[in-house]
Specification:
mainly alpha
Length: about 90
């Protein structure tokens, strides 16, 4: 396998794992809504991190869609998780 093909495969896998990481917040949101509040610091920091990656991907000379798509759920779900922790 060429270096370029390996790099593309790693990028695809990393993007999928990133989305799954943010989707895992759904369990915490459900727990928060059931009255078992978590600490909001980590989801808010994750949201800021994801927002910065989305901004980076969006502001690149050629939009970096894999970075944008992989981190956009983190903005929404990190915010939702943090708010439901309060």
């Amino acid at each position: 396998m060429s270096h370029n093909k390996l790099n593309q495969n790693i990028g695809r896998i990393a993007s999928v794992i990133s989305v799954l990481m943010y989707v895992s917040y759904l369990a915490q949101i459900a727990s928060n809504l059931a009255g078992h509040k978590g600490n909001p610091v980590q989801p808010f920091v994750a949201m800021v991190n994801a927002a910065l990656w989305v901004a980076y991907g969006w502001s690149a000379p050629k939009k970096d869609w894999p970075i944008i798509i992989a981190n956009a759920p983190g903005v929404v779900l990190g915010l939702a998780t943090g708010i439901t922790c309060l």
